[in-house]
Amino acid sequence: MVDPATVHLWLYRGMFVLVCCIVIFLQLLPLRTEPSPIPGPDFLFAFTAVWIMRKPTFAPLFIIVLLHFLADILFLRPPGLWSAITIFGYEYLRRKSTGPTDIEIPVEILLACGTFAVMVFVNALAHFAFLLEQPTLLTLVLHILTTALAYPVVIVVSHFVLGVRHTHPGDLDMVRSKA
């Protein structure tokens, strides 16, 4: 018989993959016929950051890398560049969030948005270094701001709709004893 904790873990990992695939699919849909002057938020980053900061075991690194590499290919970005940058950003968020106490919501929002801003500017520097086409500084700042404004909404959806809540110390002990 399969352990209920293992089933629960893999169900949430499957839900994470499903949510990320839905986000990628919705971003691929041609909803506007004309380009918008304001870039949309990066919901893939927002959902992944919320899940990593609240339940790190639900979003393992290999799933995150595969989903972001798929997004790189589908969004016609340089394959692997954003995926590599996100590895460092997400692991930084994972390390900051796995403490004995919960992170307060404003601190979580500032930490995630600050990490996203650094990731966006590192991506822009990589585009500059490899002489790739890059957006203007205003576009980058607007992208960061729209993602920062969408992040609290993603927290609410993840918490109340998807049931992703902060990890408690007992939860981590249970996962470590399984390994």
Question: How would you describe this protein?
Answer:
With 179 residues, the protein is mostly helical. The mean pLDDT is 87. It has seven helices and no strands. The two termini are 18 Å apart. The chain is 72% helix and 0% strand. It has one domain: Arp2/3 complex 21 kDa subunit ARPC3.
Provide a compact summary of the structure.
This protein is mostly helical.
Q: What features would you highlight for this structure?
A:
179 residues, mainly alpha, Arp2/3 complex 21 kDa subunit ARPC3, 72% helix, 0% strand, globular
| Residues in β-strands, percent | under 5%
Count of domain modules:
1
* Architecture (CATH level 2) name: Orthogonal Bundle
Biggest beta-sheet profile: none
Mean pLDDT, nearest integer? 87
- Low-pLDDT residue intervals, each spanning 5 or more residues: none
**Based on CA inertia axes, which overall geometry fits?**
globular
Residue share in helix: over 70%
* Class inferred from helices and paired strands: mainly alpha
Note the total helix count. Answer: 7
- In the CATH scheme, the class would be Mainly Alpha
Order of helices and strands: HHHHHHH
Write the layout of secondary structure elements.
Elements (H helix, E strand, L loop, with lengths): L3 H25 L14 H12 L6 H14 L6 H17 L7 H25 L7 H25 L7 H10 L1
Helix pairs in contact: 1-2, 1-3, 2-4, 2-6, 3-4, 4-5, 5-6
